[in-house]
Design goal:
The structure holds two protein chains of two kinds. By secondary structure, chain A is an all-alpha fold. Chain A has nine helices and no strands. The radius of gyration of chain A is 21 Å and the shape is globular. Classes of the chains: A mainly alpha, B alpha/beta.
């Protein structure tokens, strides 16, 4: 008898290839839309300069801050208009869409992969890693879009310009590069990984569309409710206490909450996969 | 290979879908599951693969308990609903992509499996352009590639034309000659009795009777 076993690297490589095959068009859309947003930003800065505002040249840090800033705190009844963060919505919707579609058939027609993997824990570990890679690739796509736009004269430095921040986000602020990296990149990535893993593990319990809706609900609630317990706030850098926007989100609180939820998702998924029925008729 | 279902019961959302199933399957035989829609044939197949877990009872494969000593049968090919193939890939490329999970199945074995089901391994058409019958055939090819010891086919003749049906019948007969264990279901009783040396009658989640003899 030919003994058939699959080593983990083969399972993981298969899942990575599957993810890219299913989602490459979405990453391309993310890239192109990000380029379009950057283009619109440059047009806006140019027209502001033409109107007499004295603004320094855009830096990569300015562009990335603009793309990744999210929204300030929502204050109900304060009479202050709440600007809907369309860019933030687009980015995190795309990530949820990518993760959701990659894992949409996990509990149904992808049974052959599970059988060939031979080992449920191995299969689940691979799915978790691919979920993390999906999020990282989305961020890489955004950074690549900014990287390409450097050809349009954007300075390739992460330093942000207070005057540009004042023009774009209505308050001047500066951050040290390491602070910027933590608040605008690392923490949102960690939170996004957390949300995506929650989405993936919930697919073991519910239909994929319900899980996707759950993620959207979480993101919407995060927009309107600023609290570290509402984990989507980790993807909204403007609410960090370090920035002068009266935010209440402390980096450490969010990072701890994310870490706990990530570990919990992996463990719950590992327990569930041992007991779950695949291809249930119900 | 010897598969034993011992007092296997499965309840899903309060409904007993399999009730006290006791059955032994051995290599070198083709077992046919016969019964009306919803009687539990596909559930039995899922139980044998390890895709569902019992509420009580167990499945033993060569003495090992499925779900405890092993997650899945070590050498199995399954067709239960169309697998999630990649629409942009050809038939060969889809099977290659699946087979790469184990890196044990050669290109030649894949080509052989595709040919045996009546498809062309060099066909450049992508899966999205396949007809229903072609998709079904590719699903069968995925189940038999590498010639696993246990092959489970749920309604393999659905959507396949007459010449294809004859081809699949020959394929199943060949698998029996190679001492593989085949478990299948089919709506056409004539096809089932001609292909299977043991026919298991299933009704309301129970085995009512078995006809024929295993080798």
């Amino acid at each position: 008898m030919k003994r058939k076993t699959a080593c983990f690297s083969h399972v993981l490589l298969h899942d990575i290839r599957y993810s890219i095959l299913i989602s490459w068009k979405k990453y391309l859309a993310l890239f192109l839309v990000t380029e379009a947003i950057i283009g619109a930003l440059m047009v806006r800065i140019q027209s502001d300069c033409q109107l007499g505002m004295v603004l320094p040249p855009l830096t990569a840090g300015d562009v990335l801050t603009y793309l990744l800033s999210g929204a300030k705190i929502f204050r109900y009844g304060a009479g202050i208009p709440f600007e809907i963060p369309y860019i933030w919505i687009f980015i995190y919707l795309m990530i949820a869409f990518i993760v959701g579609e990659n894992h949409a058939n996990l509990m149904t027609s992808r049974y052959m992969e599970l059988l060939l993997s031979q080992e449920k824990h191995r299969w689940w570990a691979s799915k978790c890693i691919v979920t993390v890679l999906d999020v990282l690739l989305a961020y890489v796509t955004i950074f690549a879009a900014v990287g390409i736009s450097l050809f349009w004269g954007i300075k390739p430095v992460l330093k942000i310009s207070p005057d540009i921040m004042k023009a774009l986000i209505w308050k001047a602020f500066t951050l040290k590069p390491n602070q910027w990296t933590v608040i605008f990149v690392l923490l949102p990535i960690l939170t996004s990984v957390c949300i995506s893993l929650l989405q993936t593990v919930s697919i073991l319990f519910f239909k994929p569309m319900i899980c996707f809706t759950g993620v959207i609900t979480l993101l919407v609630v995060s927009l309107f409710y600023c609290n570290p317990a509402v984990i989507g706030n980790g993807t909204l850098p403007l609410r960090n206490t370090i920035l002068p926007f009266e935010g209440t989100i402390r980096t450490l609180d969010v990072a701890l909450a994310d870490a706990v939820l990530i570990v919990a998702s992996i463990i719950i998924g590992n327990i569930k996969i041992k007991k779950v029925d695949l291809l249930s008729e119900v | 290979m010897k598969i034993e279902m011992k007092d296997y019961c499965k309840t899903l959302r309060g409904a007993e879908v399999l009730k006290h199933i006791n059955m032994t399957f051995t290599s070198g035989n083709v077992y046919g599951l016969k019964g009306q829609n919803g009687c539990g044939k596909t559930m039995m197949m899922r139980a044998i693969c390890g895709l569902i877990l019992p509420t009580s009872g167990e499945v033993l494969i060569d003495g090992k308990v499925l779900g405890k000593d092993m997650s899945f049968p070590e050498s199995v090919g399954v067709l239960i609903e169309n697998p999630a193939f990649i629409n942009a890939y050809t038939g060969f490329k889809n099977l290659r992509f699946l087979a790469d999970i184990q890196k044990k199945i050669t290109d030649e074995e894949i080509r052989e499996a595709i040919t045996e089901v009546g498809l062309d391994p060099d066909d450049k058409r992508s899966y999205r352009k396949y007809s229903l019958g072609m998709k079904e055939r590719l699903g069968i090819a995925a189940a038999i590639m590498g010639t696993p010891e246990l092959i489970i086919l749920d309604e393999p003749l659905n959507g396949i034309d007459e010449s294809g049906v004859e081809m699949i019948k020959k394929l199943i007969a060949d698998l029996k000659e190679k001492s593989k264990l085949v478990i299948m279901s089919c709506h056409d009783a004539e096809d089932l009795y001609s292909l299977c040396n043991v026919v298991v009658n299933v009704s309301a989640g129970k085995i009512i009777s078995t006809e024929g003899e295993a080798k």
